[in-house]
From TrEMBL:
InterPro entries: Class-I_Pyr_Nuc-Dis_Oxidored (IPR050151), FAD/NAD-bd_sf (IPR036188), FAD/NAD-binding_dom (IPR023753), FAD/NAD-linked_Rdtase_dimer_sf (IPR016156), Pyr_nuc-diS_OxRdtase (IPR001100), Pyr_nucl-diS_OxRdtase_dimer (IPR004099). It comes from the Bacteria. GO terms for molecular function: dihydrolipoyl dehydrogenase (NADH) activity; flavin adenine dinucleotide binding. This is NAD(P)/FAD-dependent oxidoreductase. GO terms for biological process: 2-oxoglutarate metabolic process. Binds 1 FAD per subunit. FAD binds at residues 55, 118, 148-150, 312.
Length: 477
C-alpha cells in the first residue's frame, strides 16, 4: 500500500468507541465492506476513561454500603476499602489501557482498522494520517459515519491550564487517591466521582453552582444523593462557584464566589462536554468545525445523503447505551439504503428510526444511593404540554426493600399522561434501583397503558413490588 493509494469501502467509520464498533458490526453483518479509523484506543472513551473504569471504582463502594445495611453482615465490613486493590481491579477492566483485544474483535468481524487521525477531505472521502506520517485515502461508496464522541469542557478561568486540573479522564484513571479533592459540578460525573474518591480515602468538597445535584432528574434524586454524600463525609456546597484556581507549592487553592478559600491536592472539573468535531474536516463538506451535528431519526446528518453522526456528536443523548442503540439504527439504515430498500423514518417501531431518543432515554447514576430514570421528569412533561400527574411512593413500602437493606431509604415517581394513561417518565432513587430501570424503560418505550401494567405482577418479596405500590397510589388518590 502506497501513501497515495486510494482505497474504496462501502462504509467508513470515524471513531472506534462502542458507537463506531456497533456501526461497523451492523454494516459488516449486512455484507458491506467497512473501514474504521481510530486515533487513540479501540474501545473509546467508555472502555478506558468513562463507563467501565468508573463503575469498576464504584462497585466496591456500593457493595460495601449495601453490606453495611444488612444485619449480621455489617460488622464484617466496617473497615476501609483496600484502595490499591480497587485501583488494580479498575486497571484490569481497562486492560491497563491497551486495546489489543478490542482491535482483534474488530478484525474478527471483518472490519479494517486504520490507526491515525481521520479527516473528511471532501464528500465521501476520509484521509487518515498515521503517527508515522503515512497517509491513506479512504472513499465510501455509501456512507461515512462520524462516531468521534465528546470531550470534557473546562471553564474559562485565568491560569487554569497551569493548575493541571482533572477532567473525567483523570478522575477515572488516577493511580492513587488524592488526600483532598475538590469536585466542581453537580451532574453524573461529579456525583459518581465524589462518591468513589470519598470512599477510597479522599476528603471531597463538591462545589455546585445551582441549587442541587443531578438537576436533570427529579429534585428528590439530587437531594437524596447529597444527603448520602454528606453523611459519608463529603462537603457539598450548593449555590457556589469557583472564581479562581491556582496551584501554590503543589497545593490547589480555590477561591469561591462565597468568599471561601479551599485547599486541595487535586481539583476535578465536571462541567460539561463538547463535540469532538473540531479537526475532522467538517469544513470540507460545508459544515462548521467543532459543532454538534444535527441528524434525522436514521442518524443521517441534516441535508446529507451519505454522512451520518452517531452517538455523542449529535447531542441527542450523551450516554453509551443510547449511542449503541443509535449505532444499531444507523447500521440498519445504511445497509437498507445501500441495497435500495426504502427507509421509513416515520415508522416509530421500525428498525430505521431512533425514536426512543425522543421519549424513552434511560440513565443510571451509580452513586449511593443509586438514581435511575427514564423518559421525562414531571417538569419536563409539563413543559412539553402533556396533561400529567406525578405519583410518588417511598420504596420502603415494597416488601423486598427492608430485606434488601435495613432502614431502606428511597423514593419512586411515575409521571402519568392522563390522556391515555401511559407513563411519560419514571424515576427511582435508592439502593439497588439500577436493576429496576429496564422495566420502567419497557413501560415508557412501549407506551404500556396502566390498565395493562396491573397485570405485570411483581415477584414477592422484591424491591420491584414498588410497581404495585405506585399503581395503587395512582388508583387511590
Amino acid at each position: 500500500m502506497t501513501e497515495t493509494e486510494t482505497i474504496a469501502y462501502d462504509v467508513v467509520v470515524l471513531g472506534a468507541g462502542p458507537v463506531g464498533e456497533n456501526v461497523a458490526d451492523r454494516t459488516r453483518a449486512a455484507g458491506l465492506s467497512t473501514a474504521v479509523v481510530e486515533s487513540e484506543l479501540v474501545g473509546g472513551e467508555c472502555s478506558y476513561w468513562a463507563c467501565v473504569p468508573s463503575k469498576a471504582l464504584l462497585r466496591p463502594v456500593i457493595a460495601r454500603a449495601d453490606a453495611r445495611r444488612v444485619p449480621g453482615l455489617r460488622q464484617s465490613v466496617q473497615g476501609p476499602l483496600d484502595t490499591d486493590a480497587v485501583l488494580a481491579h479498575r486497571n484490569y477492566y481497562t486492560s491497563d489501557w491497551h486495546d489489543d483485544g478490542a482491535a482483534q474483535w474488530l478484525e474478527s468481524i471483518g472490519a479494517v482498522l486504520y490507526r491515525g487521525h481521520g479527516r473528511l477531505t471532501g464528500p465521501r472521502t476520509v484521509t487518515v494520517t498515521g503517527q508515522d506520517g503515512a497517509r491513506h485515502i479512504l472513499t465510501a461508496r455509501h456512507a461515512v459515519a462520524v462516531c468521534t464522541g465528546s470531550d470534557a469542557v473546562l471553564p474559562d478561568l485565568p491560569g487554569l491550564a497551569d493548575v493541571k486540573p482533572w477532567t473525567s479522564r483523570n478522575a477515572t484513571s488516577a493511580q492513587a487517591a488524592p488526600g483532598r479533592l475538590v469536585v466542581v459540578g453537580g451532574g453524573v460525573v461529579a456525583t459518581e466521582m465524589a462518591t468513589a474518591w470519598q470512599a477510597l480515602g479522599s476528603q471531597v468538597t463538591v462545589l455546585v453552582r445551582g441549587k442541587g445535584l443531578l438537576n436533570r432528574m427529579e429534585p428528590f434524586a439530587g437531594e437524596l444523593v447529597a444527603e448520602a454524600l454528606t453523611e459519608a463525609g463529603a462537603d457539598v456546597r450548593t449555590g457556589t462557584s469557583a472564581e479562581s484556581v491556582t496551584r501554590e507549592n503543589g497545593t490547589v487553592v480555590v477561591a469561591t464566589d462565597q468568599g471561601d478559600r479551599i485547599e486541595a491536592d487535586e481539583i476535578l472539573f465536571a462541567t460539561g462536554r463538547a463535540p469532538r468535531t473540531g479537526d475532522i474536516g467538517l469544513d470540507t463538506v460545508g459544515l462548521e468545525p467543532g459543532t454538534w451535528l444535527p441528524v434525522d431519526d436514521s442518524l443521517r446528518v441534516t441535508g446529507s445523503d451519505w454522512l451520518y453522526a452517531v452517538g455523542d456528536v449529535n447531542h441527542r443523548a450523551l450516554l453509551t447505551h443510547q449511542g449503541k442503540y443509535q449505532a444499531r439504527i444507523a447500521g440498519a439504515a445504511i445497509a437498507a439504503r445501500a441495497s435500495g430498500v426504502p427507509v421509513r423514518e416515520s415508522d416509530a417501531w421500525g428498525a430505521h428510526a431512533a425514536t426512543a431518543d425522543h421519549h424513552a432515554v434511560p440513565q443510571v447514576v451509580f452513586t449511593d444511593p443509586e438514581a435511575a430514570a427514564v423518559g421525562l421528569s414531571l417538569a419536563e412533561a409539563e413543559q412539553a404540554g402533556y396533561r400529567v400527574r406525578a405519583v410518588d411512593v417511598e420504596i420502603s413500602s415494597a416488601s423486598g426493600a427492608g430485606l434488601y437493606a435495613d432502614g431502606y431509604r428511597g423514593r419512586a415517581r411515575m409521571v402519568v399522561d392522563l390522556n391515555g394513561e401511559i407513563l411519560r417518565g419514571v424515576t427511582f432513587v435508592g439502593p439497588g434501583v439500577s436493576e429496576l430501570i429496564h422495566s420502567a424503560t419497557i413501560a415508557v418505550a412501549g407506551q404500556v397503558p396502566i390498565s395493562r401494567l396491573w397485570h405485570a405482577v411483581p415477584s414477592f418479596p422484591t424491591i420491584s413490588e414498588v410497581w404495585l405500590r405506585l399503581l395503587e397510589a395512582y388508583r387511590d388518590n
